[in-house]
Specification:
This protein is 49% helix and 16% strand. The strands form 2 sheets. Strands 2-1-3-6-7 form a 5-stranded parallel beta sheet, sandwiched between helices. The radius of gyration is 19 Å and the shape is elongated.
């Protein structure tokens, strides 16, 4: 039996996932949490085989900021990150921070069960990016911040103020972004990204 700790701030979804998994004799949901902040102590005190966590949890706590520490302290625990947000950077960031697998919430419960079992067996499962997504994933963290702010409607001066960098630095990042993506303007790139839901603007 696979013991699972679930972290999900939407209680209806949390209960739905927990109930669906609990109906299968191969799974046991040991605890349901709404905040990733509570996961470390829960694992320390009671353990689990799998941590299944949403990215956005209660009080705006992002699980990507916590899973690295959890993985270092409990390397035997398999961490599966899930999200319903269309941000192409999440999968790669999850991998970099130590997650064992990454899933989107639009999959079926049967697919989720299969991924959990595969993950426990040692397989790492991450979505295969499209060529366009791979190109965007090649951007640095700072370039991604500039791109996201531009897509949110901020101009170069405002982006510089928000990121505490000079306008010239913003221009430098924009040149790199356009060079890597082969777009002639940030406006066209932003339209493409927004139209295809490639970055979460929340």
């Amino acid at each position: 039996m696979i013991n699972i700790l679930i972290v999900e701030d939407q209680k209806l979804l949390l209960d739905g996932i927990a109930n669906s998994l609990s109906m299968d004799n191969d799974f046991c949901v040991t605890r349901k949490l709404t905040n990733i902040c509570d996961a470390y102590n829960e694992i320390k005190n009671n353990g689990c085989d799998v941590l299944l966590t949403d990215i956005c949890t209660e009080n705006n706590n992002n699980s990507l900021n916590y899973i690295s520490e959890i993985k270092k302290s409990f390397p035997e625990v398999k961490i599966i990150v899930m999200t319903g947000l269309p941000d192409i950077s999440y999968a790669e960031r999850s991998r970099e921070n130590g997650a064992d697998s990454f899933i989107y919430k639009n999959i079926s419960i049967e697919e989720m069960k299969t991924i959990i079992k595969s993950c426990v067996s040692g397989y790492k499962i991450f979505p295969t990016p499209t060529p366009q997504e791979s190109t965007l994933n090649s951007l640095t963290k700072q370039e991604m911040k500039v791109l996201k702010l531009y897509c949110q409607g901020y101009d170069r001066t405002e982006i510089g103020d928000i990121l505490s960098i000079s306008v010239n630095s913003v221009k430098f990042h924009i040149r790199n972004i356009l060079s890597k993506t082969n777009y002639s303007s940030m406006s066209r790139l932003a339209i493409y990204i927004i139209h295809n839901n490639l970055i979460s603007l929340e």
